[in-house]
Amino acid sequence: MRNIKLTIExxxxxxxxxxFQPGQRTVQGLLEENLSSMxxxxxxxxxxxxxxxxxxxxxxxxxxxxSRDIPLKAFDEGLNSLLPRDxxxxxxxxxxxxxxxRFDAKSRRYRYQIIFHRSPxxxxxxxxxxxxxxxxxxxxxxxxxxxxxxxxxxASAQAEVNNFICQVEQxxxxxGHEIWTFEIKANRFLHNMVRILVxxxxxxxxxxxxxKDLQKILEAKDRTLAGKTAPACGxxxxxxxx
Length: 242
Prior knowledge:
Blueprint: E1 2-10, H1 27-39, E2 46-47, E3 56-66, H2 73-82, E4 87-95, E5 107-115, E6 127-128, H3 135-144, E7 147-150, E8 165-175, E9 179-186, H4 193-205, H5 214-220, E10 235-241
Parallel strand pairs: 3-10, 5-6
Antiparallel strand pairs: 1-3, 1-4, 2-3, 5-9, 5-10, 7-8, 8-9
Helix pairs in contact: 3-4
């Protein structure tokens, strides 16, 4: 039995997320449907993690097992010929028999983008805000989430996990002339964690919340104390590291 590892890119705008849902257009469902048809056997695709409806990916990773002895190029060139324009296989490779896209991942890196002016080309992949935010405040806040913390306050109420501890290895803002980006890398992420962090930091940087309260919110472990959840369109899973 072969274990095939896929690196996948997709525009999440028209997907109901990564995870298969009956009657919904999902990335996992689309891959399983086309792989099963191509290989003429039932295929189950395991992703490195779920992305919500509207969230994009430049480097999602998944794996599946097959008994078919066909060239690797069939899993990128062949599969890509069957897939719609908003999802593509970037790379296909043989993986070890016990490789698991989710459980073997050491860390994941996400990027969130913000713009301030109307842009039909960029608004599909960024959150457009119409108010001022202080860059220095954002950078200070990003530094406060580095390291190991309990992120209960920055997870949705629907988060189905045993604990809320995450180790953040990178958290920084980059300020371009037309677009701001927030980069974050951690060993794991909770449901809506990046979007709630971004929404909270923006609220603090625009003066809607006290920018000295981030540490207090972390310690309180209370979602109601954090800010809004930033829109899904600005978030992209950039890479999964093993």
